[in-house]
Design brief:
Layout lengths: L3 H5 L6 H8 L6 H10 L6 H5 L7 H6 L27 E5 L2 E7 L27 H9 L5 E6 L7 H12 L6 E6 L1 H4 L6 H8 L4 E6 L8 H12 L4 E7 L7 H13 L3 E7 L13 H11 L10 E6 L4 E4 L5 E4 L3 E5 L5 E5 L9 H9 L4 H4 L1
Parallel strand pairs: 2-3, 3-4, 4-5, 5-6, 6-7, 7-8
Antiparallel strand pairs: 1-2, 8-9, 10-11, 11-12
Helix pairs in contact: 7-9, 11-12
Amino acid sequence: MQTWQEILHQSITTVDELIERFGPENVDREAVQRAIERFNLRITPAALQQIRAPGDPMWRQYVPSPRELEVVDGIVDSLDEDADSPVPNLTHRYPDRVLFLISPVCASYCRFCTRRRKVGDPEKIPLNQFDSAFAYLRERTEVRDVILSGGDPFMLSDRRIEYFLRTLREIPHIEIIRIHTRMPSHLPQRITPELCDIIRRYHPVYINVHFNHPDELTPEAVKALGMLADAGAPLGSQTVLLEGVNDDPAVMKELMHRLLKARVRPYYIYQADVVAGGEHFRTRIEKGLEIIRALRGWTSGLGVPHYVIDAPGGGGKIPLLPEYVESITDEEVVMRNYAGEVYRYPLPKGDRPASPAVCRAAEEEPALALLDV
C-alpha cells in the first residue's frame, strides 16, 4: 500500500505532463508556463480524477489559465495580511485570534489562491522562524483562538503537526485551535489513523475543510472526513464563490447537502478575493445574494453558510445578506420571507400603560397577576 507521500509524488507538476494528459489543443504551452512561473502547479491524482473534461469546474480550479496573466485591478496582498503581521508567519487582525502560517506548500495549488504570493515558496513562509511567533502568543494573553494555515498544515509530518499542537496547548490562555486544510479532497490518503490519534490528544481542535463543488466529495474524501469527525474534531467547510465553478444556486445547494451528509457544517461562502492572477474567478455580488436566497428557507438552516467578503485592505470578514426587511416603523417591522411573502411583526410598546384590570390583579395577587390575565 502506498504512503500519502508516494501518492503526492505522482502529481502533475509540469506543462509537459498537462499536455500529455489533456492534449496540446487544450493547453497553451507558453501561457501556462508563464502562469506556473508566477504560481506553482501541482495537481494530485485525487484532484486529477475529479476533472471530467477541459474547462469543467475542476479544470478551472487547478489547471493554469492564460487569464492569470491579465492583471487589471488585482492586488498581490489583497487582504493586507502582511501589514498585520507582528512577527514572521503570524497575522493578528482580530482581537482574540490569530492566523499562524505553519506550512508553505499545498498538495494541489488552487488557481484562485489568495495567498499565492507566498504559497509554494518556503522562503516566504519559512519553516525555521516559529520561535518569535510562539513568544508573541505567550505574551498576548488576549489571544484565545489560533488558526493553523499556510499552505496546508497537513502537508507537514505527523511529528511536526504534534509539535505545533503540543506547544500551543502549553500556552494557558489559548483555548481553541483550528486547522485549515484541503487534504480530504486533494489527498485523502493523508488522513491516517495516526494523524487522527494526534488530533484526539489536543482537543478542542476544530478543522475547517474547503470544498467548492459537489464532485469534490468523492467516496475517498467522505471517508477521510468521517475519520476526522470520529477523532472528535468539529468540521466546518469554507467555500469560495467562483465563476464557472459553483456560481449556480443548484450546484451550491447540492454541495451544502452533501457536506452535511458527510458531517461537515457549511461555514462560509467567500466572495472571491481581489487577488492578482485570480481576477477571472470573481462574480458579481448579486450572484452570491441569489445563492443565499436559494438556500435560506428552501433547505435546512444547517446548510446555509454565511456569505462574506473578506474586505480588501485588511477590513476583515463582512457578512452580506439579501434584503428581507422592507421597513421598520415605531409600530412594526415589515418583512419578506424566503418565498417573497410579506409579513408584519408588531414592535413592543414600552411606554404603553398597563390596563386597570392588570394593575388591580397585581395588587391583590402579585405572583399570579400575569397568569390571571
